[in-house]
Amino acid sequence: MVRTGWKAPEPRQELIWAAVDFDGTLVNSEMPDFALGEPIWRNVGKLWQLVAYDYKIIIHTARSWENYETIESWLNHYEIPFDRIVCGKLLAAIYVDDRACHADESMWLPHEGDDMKCYKCGRTPTTREESKRDGRTTIRFVCEVHRAKT
Q1: Is the dihedral of CA 43, 109, 16, 91 positive or negative?
Q2: pLDDT tens sequence for the chain (150 residues)
Q3: How many CA atoms lie less than 13 Å away from 98 in the CB half-sphere?
Q4: 85, 26, 101, 18: which is closest to 54 by C-alpha?
Q5: Can you point out the beta strands (E) in 2-150?
Q6: Could you give all domains of the chain from N- to C-terminal order, each with its CATH number?
Q7: Biggest alpha carbon distance in the chain?
Q8: For residues 83 and 56, is the Cβ–Cβ distance under 8 A?
Q9: Does this model's pTM top 0.70?
Q10: C-beta of residue 107 within 8 angstroms of C-beta of residue 49
């Protein structure tokens, strides 16, 4: 049977992925062998906040792929949420990125301001909407044009 008629979906209006570093952000690692210690619970709480706001979580690490199962097992043991693990991040002394958030910030959610856009059209939002479904809270930002229509 040949299937026809597939159409690509419209591009998302908002990014739903949050990439979170592993060593030194979620886990206390001990040098020189990077033995896994206890979770950094203040940061695990911030990770759960991202999940509550419907972000999908990528654990991003400079560890090699041979460490994947160890990382996965550690995250599952401590019930730390994640959707994917990506190994092999470039090891660098400093990362400069326009979407960066330091692990020590009080929260990891995007700050209101220049990076917040209406989820329908990308304009500057005028309203923040919250909805709850299945015990999860979703936050959306809406512009004046779409506020009356939602």
Answers
A1: negative
A2: 788 899 998 887 778 899 999 999 999 987 667 789 999 999 999 999 899 888 999 999 999 999 999 999 999 999 999 999 999 988 888 887 777 778 888 778 775 544 556 667 766 666 667 666 666 556 666 677 777 654
A3: 2
A4: 18
A5: 17-21, 27-30, 35-39, 56-60, 84-86, 127-133, 136-142
A6: 13-91 (3.40.50.1000), 110-150 (no CATH)
A7: 57
A8: yes
A9: no
A10: yes
- Sequence-ordered list of residues with C-beta below 8 angstroms from that of 122, at least 6 positions apart, any chain: 13
Tell me whether residue 23 is exposed, middle or buried, using C-beta atoms within 10 angstroms of its C-beta: 0 to 12, 13 to 18, 19 or more.
middle
Structure tokens at 13: 């209006």
Residue type present at position 131: S
Structure token pair of residue 55: 């972000």
Q: Which residue has the tokens 């990076």?
A: 115
Distance CA 73, CA 92 (A): 26
**Residue 125 in tokens:** 């939002």
Place of tokens 């550690």: 74
Q: What is the DSSP letter of 113?
A: S
Please return the burial class of 103, using the count of CB atoms within 10 Å of its CB with bins 0-12, 13-18 and 19+.
Answer: middle
Distance, CA of 61 to CA of 69 (rounded, Å) = 13
